[in-house]
Amino acid sequence: MPAVVIVGAQWGDEGKGKATDLIADRIDYVVKFNGGNNAGHTVVIGTEKYALHLLPSGILTPGVVPVISNGVVIDPEVLMEELDALEARGIDVSGLVISSHAHLITQYHRTLDKVTERFLGKRQIGTTGRGIGPTYADKINRVGIRVQDIFDEGILRQKVEGALHQKNHLLVKVYNRRAIEVDEVVEELLSYRDRLRPLVQDTALLLHTALEDNKTVLFEGGQATMLDVDHGTYPFVTSSSATAGGAATGSGIAPWRLSTVIGIVKAYTTRVGSGPFPSELEDEFGEFLREKGHEYGTTTGRPRRTGWYDAPIARYSARINGVTDFVLTKLDVLTGLDKIPVCVAYDVDGTRIDEVPWSQSDFHHASPIYEYFPGWSEDLTGIREFDDLPQAAKDYVLALEAMSGARISAIGVGPSRDAIVTRHALLD
Question: What is any one of the record's Gene Ontology cellular component terms (predicted)?
Answer without folding.
Answer: cytoplasm
